[in-house]
């Protein structure tokens, strides 16, 4: 759990009223409605022992419908695309992308302690064909250390997904660097952010040196998760050419 959070897994999973979940023996069964009469289910092992990413956080929970929204607005948005999710935790967001389109290749990434739970979740959802688990520690690819992006993670992504990754101030520059390393001007970056503390401003000051962004405002669920201080942003790589 993040410092200061006393919510149980059940409370954390109640942001969107029309999403359903049940829990049995540590496995969550989450169902997202994706269009009238159509839904998508993901099974998720949750376990807080490997770290805070081992549970399903609210921002990660509201992100799957955004991916669905994106897939309806764009022609063949995920088809054959290379998708990298940063700070995947359980892998929920990337698993949803992998389920939505079996032709896309999804890399769900996080630090070493989370890899086991992510691998189990890939297997639980039979997504081994198009979802791969890789270790990607933002610190390791910081430019000034000269570390390459680890093998097992593509050097550039068509789509980057990140949910609830802004919470630990020392990691802010590393997250910005990682987003920058993996993207170019064409990369679609969907970034689900939960405002926690004033220090988050520092993240956005760093971000604006390389990216601009806009809030996704046409999501019908927006007013619900905005009340939980969650916003969905689309980032655009600018490398300082223009900032927000
Ligand atoms: C609050 S959790 C969110 C997990 C998931 N995206 C979700 O929404 O349920 C933040 C995630 O960022 C990961 N993380 C934090 N610092 C990291 C770093 N330096 N490199 C890679 N991942 C990191 C954590 O391990 C954790 O899984």
UniProtKB/TrEMBL annotation:
Binding site for S-adenosyl-L-methionine: 57, 87-89, 110, 138, 163
This protein's UniProt keywords: Cytoplasm, Methyltransferase, S-adenosyl-L-methionine, Transferase
Major site of localization recorded for this protein: cytoplasm
EC numbers, comma separated: 2.1.1.-
GO molecular function terms attached to this record: protein-lysine N-methyltransferase activity
Protein name: Protein-lysine N-methyltransferase EFM6
Family: Belongs to the class I-like SAM-binding methyltransferase superfamily. METTL21 family. EFM6 subfamily.
Protein's job: S-adenosyl-L-methionine-dependent protein-lysine N-methyltransferase that methylates elongation factor 1-alpha.
UniProt keyword Methyltransferase present: yes
Gene3D superfamilies hit by this protein: Vaccinia Virus protein VP39
């Amino acid at each position: 759990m993040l410092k200061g959070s006393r919510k149980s897994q059940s409370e954390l999973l109640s942001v969107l009223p029309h999403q359903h979940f049940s829990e049995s023996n540590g496995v969550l069964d989450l169902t997202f409605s994706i269009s009238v009469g159509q839904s998508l289910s993901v099974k998720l092992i949750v376990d807080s022992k490997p770290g805070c990413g081992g549970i399903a956080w609210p921002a990660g929970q509201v992100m799957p419908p955004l991916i669905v929204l994106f897939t309806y607005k764009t022609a063949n948005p995920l088809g054959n695309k290379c998708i990298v999710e940063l700070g995947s935790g359980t892998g929920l967001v990337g698993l949803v992308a992998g389920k939505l389109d079996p032709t896309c290749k999804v890399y769900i990434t996080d630090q070493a302690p989370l890899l086991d739970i992510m691998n189990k979740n890939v297997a639980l959802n039979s997504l081994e064909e198009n979802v791969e688990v890789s270790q990607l520690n933002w610190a390791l690819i910081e430019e000034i250390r000269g570390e390459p992006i680890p093998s097992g993670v593509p050097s550039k992504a068509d789509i980057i997904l990140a949910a609830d990754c802004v919470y630990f101030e020392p990691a802010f520059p590393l997250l910005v660097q990682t987003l920058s390393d993996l993207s170019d001007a064409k990369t679609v970056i969907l970034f689900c952010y939960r405002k926690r503390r004033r220090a988050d401003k520092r993240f956005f000051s760093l971000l604006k040196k390389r990216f601009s962004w806009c809030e996704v405002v046409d999501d019908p669920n927006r007013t619900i998760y905005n009340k939980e201080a969650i916003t969905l942003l689309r980032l655009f790589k600018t490398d300082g050419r223009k900032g927000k």
